[in-house]
Amino acid sequence: MSSLEVTIPTDREVLTRRRFSAPRGLVYRAHTEPDLIKRWLLGPPGWTMPECRFDARVGGSYFYRWAHPTEPGFALTGIITEIDPPDRIVSRENFDSQWTGGETEVTQDFIPDGDGTIVAQRILFASREAREAGMATGMTDGMAMSFDALERLLAELA
Amino acid sequence: MPEETLDLTFAALADPTRRAILARLSRGEATVTELAEPFAMSQPAISKHLKVLERAGLISRGRDAQRRPCRIEGPALAAVNGWLETYRDIWDQNYRRLDAVLADMQADGKDTTGGH
Lengths: 158, 116
Fold this sequence. Notes:
The complex is a heterodimer. By secondary structure, chain A is an alpha+beta fold. Chain A has helices at about 25-30, 35-40, 130-135, 145-155; strands at about 5, 15-20, 50-55, 60-65, 75-85, 90-95, 105-115, 115-125. In chain A, strands 1-2-8-7-6-5-4-3 form an eight-stranded antiparallel sheet. Chain B has helices at about 5-15, 15-25, 30-35, 45-55, 75-105; strands at about 60, 70. Chain A: This is ATPase.
């Protein structure tokens, strides 16, 4: 199991990077085929994706709708602005709620790494405020933090 | 924490020197002189960074007019950390499920796109 790197290089961006033990062709398919996407792009436990469409071409759109037994559902629409199978997908995304505080630009690079693949994802928010609004639910105001957590945080910010 | 404070916090953390100062302060309080040493920076330059960190609520400074030792303030960092942890958790869970999906795909021998 490879660990997930999260960094925030500027105040409008979040980068994630993760290695998978699978060839790039499969990783790309898992990001572009609805039957595969709806098996993993689900967020926290309890969520499902009853509706998923993905039209993998420039100008094509995708649509994800998530549902939960007790929480109100939400959906996301994306427009693909650049696609280069199996290297790269660039798109503009909008959630139907206030989740990200406006449109985000998402770039996914699929990079061969030995017999595996690294997925590098960059999310560019409309503004710093948007990025923060996007994660307002994660706030833990006033919570004490251990030095371990602090060190990890500082490493992520680097 | 008010949102404008969080904005200041993120802006303060966007600078590598200020992150290094926080890393140093996570090991205990320090004066401006002590903080300036490892950075090959003048004390006024360090003081500017400290003002940004203080305004963002990330550090506080002692009242002793001579030394004014700096110390780290937990809640502001915890707010940023909470933001990042939520983000990290969501993608960590997604990608663990993706590991399983990819393992299934490989077991099924469906790699027809040529990999890399």
